[in-house]
Amino acid sequence: MSSPALPAAAPSRDRADACPGALQAHAAADGGLARVRVPGGTLSADQLRTLAASARELGDGHLELTSRGNLQLRGLAPGAETSLGARLAAAGLLPSDTHERVRNVLASTLSGRTADGHLDVRSWVRDLDAGLRADPVLAGLPGRFLATLDDGRGDVAGLGGDVGLLALAPGTVALTLAGTDSGLRTRPADAVALALAAARAFLAERAAQGSSAWRLAELTDGPARVAARLEGHGGQHGPAVQVPDPLVTGPVGAAAQLDGRTALIGVVPLGRLTADQADLLARLAAEAQLTPWRSVVVPDLAEDAVDDAAVDLFRGGMVFDEASPWLQVTTCAGRPGCAKSLADVRADATAAVRAGALPAGGARQHWVGCERRCGRPQGGVVDVVATPSGYRVEED
């Protein structure tokens, strides 16, 4: 089955992309907002400690998990990004000043650790990140440009990556463009080179169209025209495949690894990880993986350490119950972070969850402080919109 065709023309952008980074903070109502890119979502214990200390000493004490497996610090004082940048660079979280905003790379959760995928994409993450940083041209990618690396389990391929790799079998990889199958196929060893070529082709096509598009789908016939530019780059053509639909939630709970150890996956309510929680994660494992569903994977736990780790994380506020309402609720920043918001939506949503009084019952719902509906997730969702007289509930 082929993927549905995209519209021939997409909305144009009338301004340059000003997506925040670690060095280019966004001025929010509660202070500066800095975004730290974490390719593949993987953080070492030392990096978690650095982020926790930065959140306490420079920000509001929290690390916000984003839908791209990145992190945000809020409440920064003017000029604090200078100190933040130095800390991140020392921890290996800022390997390039020029390319730091373009390192948006999602990878399959638990790839190489569980048997769900065809191959281990962790080497793709390292090679793609290195390739992005090595090419001066690719520093021109918009801060919203996204790469997805799916090992075949279908968890991130449907999340709308501008460029993506989807393993169809142990030896065959599909290139996806704007979340659709391009028809181009390659070997795993050549896959990263094809993805980098596609990123360059996006920039070339954007320039040819005189566009300031932030995403490939915003170009006129973007996927088809970028695919045409890749002819001769080593990719072969294959039968069209349906790119998996986006997952509403990722894995939650305990997962048995191939090596006999265990990974714990806990959801962070509303994606607000406290500095204390980050320090706890650093004590429990050598590394952790952030996911696009605002959860955290604690991998490689020995059998005798699983129960204690689960108890510590649960007491620290993380959620391991697939039926928990926390898995169904997302919010925008709301007050005090956003001057346009009519309500403190995080506090209101939290109170509704704790009272068992969510307005749409068990339905997936997104609470927002104004009609812009920032942060709205993909797929079917009920909007809970703040108004001057309370919240309005809108079915999708």
Which descriptors apply to this entry?
globular; alpha+beta; Sulfite Reductase Hemoprotein, domain 1; 3 domains; Sulfite Reductase Hemoprotein, domain 2; single chain; six-stranded mixed sheet; 396 residues; disordered N terminus
Can you put this structure into words, describing what you see?
With 396 residues, the protein is of the alpha+beta class. The chain folds into 3 domains: 94-237, Sulfite Reductase Hemoprotein, domain 1 (2-Layer Sandwich); 253-322, Sulfite Reductase Hemoprotein,Domain 2 (Sulfite Reductase Hemoprotein, domain 2, Alpha-Beta Complex); 327-394, Sulfite Reductase Hemoprotein, domain 1 (2-Layer Sandwich), CATH 3.30.413.10. It has 8 helices and 20 strands. Strands 6-7-8-9-10-11 form a 6-stranded mixed beta sheet. A 5-stranded antiparallel beta sheet has the order 1-2-5-4-14. Helix 1 (45-58) runs antiparallel to helix 2 (80-90) and helix 1 runs antiparallel to helix 6 (275-284).
State the CATH topology of the largest domain.
Sulfite Reductase Hemoprotein, domain 1
Level-2 CATH architecture of the largest domain: 2-Layer Sandwich
The ordered H/E elements are EEEHEEHEHEEEEHHEEEEHEEHEHEEE
**Rg computed from alpha carbons, rounded to a whole number of angstroms:** 21 Å
Major sheet characteristics = 6 strands, mixed
DSSP strand count: 20
CATH class of the largest domain: Alpha Beta
Class of secondary structure makeup: alpha+beta
Distance between the termini: 26 Å
Strands ordered across the widest β-sheet? 6-7-8-9-10-11
Q: In DSSP terms, counting alpha (H) and pi (I) runs of 4 or more, how many helices?
A: 8
* Overall tally of structural domains: 3
Uncertain runs = 1-10
Helix % is: 10-25%
Shape: globular
Tell me the fraction of residues in β-strands, as a range. 15-25%
Oligomer description: single chain
**Fourth-tier CATH superfamily name of the largest domain:** Sulfite Reductase Hemoprotein, domain 1
Give the integer mean of the pLDDT values. 94
